[in-house]
Amino acid sequence: AVFLVDFFLVRKVAYVFDEFTKIEGAYWYNKGVNWVAIIAWVLGVSLYFGLKKISFIADTIGATFVSMALTAAIYYVAAQFIMNSKRGTQV
User: Fold this and answer.
1) What stretch of H or E contains 20?
2) pLDDT at residue 63 in the model
3) Which residue ranges of the chain lie beneath pLDDT 50?
4) Long-range contact list for 78-85, CB < 8 A, 24+ apart?
5) d(Cα 71, Cα 24) in Å, to the nearest integer?
6) How far is 79 from 40, CA to CA, in rounded Å?
7) 29-52 pLDDT, tens per residue?
């Protein structure tokens, strides 16, 4: 969910592939770790385990897709917030 949101919605299918292997490149984030993505993923895993205990969700659509959708939303909002705050400080 995090990768798909990053690729399609946040970066709008505009990855610069040469930047993937560069230290301090466009995708270096914080010493090579995208903490926003990691935190969104951890929250998504936690949501999965919590949602699968809710019988209505577990017995109907399942917790997987619900937690993936929530993880995608969390990452999108957080990534937009971080990107907008970086744009604001660069002006």
Assistant:
1) none
2) 96
3) 90-91
4) 78/36, 78/39, 78/40, 79/5, 79/6, 79/10, 79/36, 79/37, 80/10, 82/36, 83/10
5) 27
6) 10
7) 888 899 999 999 999 999 999 999
